[in-house]
Write a structure and sequence with these properties.
- The protein has four domains: 99 residues, no CATH class; 89 residues, PAS domain (Beta-Lactamase, 2-Layer Sandwich); 73 residues, Signal transduction histidine kinase, dimerisation/phosphotransfer (DHp) domain (Helix Hairpins, Orthogonal Bundle); 176 residues, Histidine kinase-like ATPase, C-terminal domain (Heat Shock Protein 90, 2-Layer Sandwich), CATH 3.30.565.10.
- 51% of the residues lie in helices and 17% in strands.
- It has twelve helices and 13 strands.
- It has a six-stranded mixed β-sheet. It has a five-stranded antiparallel β-sheet with strand order 2-1-5-4-3, sandwiched between helices.
- 23% of the residues are buried.
Length: 454
């Protein structure tokens, strides 16, 4: 490059020297030099005009202007850059068209918005599922088109760990699942899935369980009644029938408990069981449940109950649901804790909310089972379940009660080291003034020492 520039500079100086020499031959060296400079300037302006005209209309097939010297190399270099730019543009356009074709072939809707929610692009499935119109909706905020309050809160909340489910604004018979991802400078990529079939199957499952449970309840009640009568008069029956009748009565009782739990779980899922939120005294509620747990344990169980309730023990919620959830946890601790074991029930509050911990010294649970413990009928140990007579629905009921109260369940356990179940409730559920700043915070799972022993 430096060599070419030196050559161009020497050529210009040579031309000016020749112009000066021609002028000197006629006795006007300076005039000759000036004439040479003016001619070179005129030629340079002519080349600049060619460049301007070419850059103003750079057609894809248009050749670069013809020239020599420095301007010729400039034209050739710009022409190569222009051709490279066109090739890159064609390649990117082909990739973009391919991307559009692939996304338009998707059954899921894909929508791109900026940080403020202004629509930038969407595929054909999004047009169908959300009713978006390319002619009128581009550049519009998506909140103006999806007016559901739940979607606006989900979009503005920036917590996209869980998807949002709602009905389609354009086709109400469709049930949609919306998942948002952040990219770039807070831009949003929105994926919309049609989950109508899954929603209908789930609804059918709930209806089936509810209807079957209702239909079975009446005949089972009649059977249980006759079996109880036969048990009462078992001494008058032949000896070989006594054990059979007692076993039938026990299994009938288990089936009644199962149907009761199924009906309760069905009501919790559909919201039928959710009553008005009232102020619940956690202290009184836990004391009542502990009395029932002592009766369940009996004299042979010999369990030690330790109840520790903090000073702030009022929670807003459905008292019947909370009683059901806490009873399941405490009764499970009784069932799965060997004779003479200890059960700790602790309620405490901190800056995050209220927490109920139920900890036992039982046989514990293998951590591999913990993620699935709240599933219906899931059993970490079927043989242990058979001995204790549970329904396999207790923790599923606890999970749905906590969901109805904006809470979550935490499970900590190891084989041979007992188990701890912690119900976390948000601060908005506490019916107490916010506690003063404490010097030491209580971490979930580390309950304070018990101060009341029952």
């Amino acid at each position: 490059m430096n060599y070419k520039w030196s050559r161009y500079l020497r050529l210009i100086l040579l031309i000016l020297a020749m112009a000066t020499g021609v002028g000197a031959a006629f006795g006007y060296p300076m005039e000759g030099l000036l004439a040479g400079l003016l001619l070179y300037l005129a030629w340079t302006l002519a080349q600049a005009r060619k460049l301007y005209q070419w850059l103003s209309h750079p057609g894809a097939g248009q050749e670069a202007p013809a020239s020599i010297g420095l301007w010729g190399d400039i034209f050739d270099g710009l022409h190569k850059l222009h051709q490279g730019h066109l090739a890159t543009q064609d390649r990117l356009l082909a990739q973009f068209n391919r991307l559009q074709e692939s996304t338009n072939a998707m059954r899921d809707g894909v929508v791109m918005t900026d940080a403020r929610g202004v629509l930038v692009w969407w595929n054909g499935s999004a047009s169908y599922l959300l009713g978006l119109q390319r002619q009128t909706d581009r550049g519009q905020p998506i909140q103006n088109l999806l007016r559901a309050p739940a979607f606006k809160a989900y979009f503005d909340g920036r917590d996209y760990r869980e998807p949002l489910e709602l009905n389609s604004p354009a086709r109400p018979h469709l049930h949609l699942q919306i998942q948002i991802s952040l990219f770039g400078e807070d831009d949003r990529l929105i994926v919309v899935k049609d989950v109508t079939r899954l929603f209908q199957l789930e609804q059918m499952r709930r209806d089936f369980v509810s209807n079957v449970s209702h239909e079975m309840r009446t005949p089972l009640t009649v059977i249980s009644g006759y079996l109880e009568t036969m048990v009462d008069y078992s001494d008058e029956l032949p000896a070989r029938w006594k054990r059979a009748i007692e076993t039938m009565a026990q299994q009938s009782t288990r089936m009644e408990a199962l149907i009761t739990d199924l009906l309760l779980l069905s009501k919790l899922e559909t919201g039928e069981q959710h009553g008005a939120d009232v102020t619940v005294d956690i202290s009184a509620l836990c004391e009542q449940i502990c009395q029932d747990a002592r009766a369940l344990s009996g004299e042979s169980g010999g369990h030690q109950f330790h109840l520790d309730i903090g000073d702030r023990h009022h929670l807003r919620g459905d008292e019947d649901q909370l009683r059901s959830a806490f009873s399941n946890l405490i009764f499970n601790a009784v069932k799965y804790t060997p004779t003479g074991g200890s059960i700790f029930i602790t309620w405490f509050t901190n800056s995050e909310g209220g927490h109920l911990s139920v900890k036992d010294t039982g046989i514990g649970i293998d951590p591999v089972h913990i993620p699935r413990l709240t599933e219906r009928f899931y059993r970490a140990d079927p043989s242990r379940h058979k001995e204790t007579g549970g329904t396999g629905l207790g923790l599923a009921i606890v999970k749905h009660v906590l969901l109805n109260h904006d809470g979550e369940l935490e499970i900590l356990s190891k084989i041979g080291d007992g188990s701890e179940f912690i119900c976390h409730f948000p601060r908005s559920r506490l019916d107490e003034p916010e506690p003063e700043r404490q010097t030491a915070s209580l971490a979930p799972g580390s309950a304070p020492e018990a101060r009341n022993e029952m």
